[in-house]
Design a protein that fits this description.
By secondary structure, the chain is of the alpha+beta class. The chain contains two helices and six strands. It starts with 14 loop residues before the first strand and ends in a 5-residue tail after the last helix. About 20% of the residues lie in helices and about 40% in strands.
Length: about 120
Amino acid sequence: MKKGCHIRPLKRRLLSSIHHEHSDMIVEMEMSLSLKELRRQLKALSGFSAETETITACTWRIGAARLHITPLPPRRTGALTLPRLALRLDLSALAPEDRRDFLDRFRRLTFRGGG
């Protein structure tokens, strides 16, 4: 390697923003997934069902948790185009001790790599 040349590893955050409100009852995040990909991944969670779906937004239920999804404009970086979704998880119907377990399972199912 040439003297003075520095190579940095590429890091990509799939959950680019996570915001917690009301003692972890509401979790908001932005994800780099298409609606089709997210649906496929979440069907592995027990109790998954679609409540309402339109072109601009949808609400899904996963057991006692509700997931509100709004498609965002894709993120473009050069020739790369990534789909984006804004998610709002309402965990208020879950017992406090079940919220952390639910979020851990949700993140494991939707994590695609990156840093």
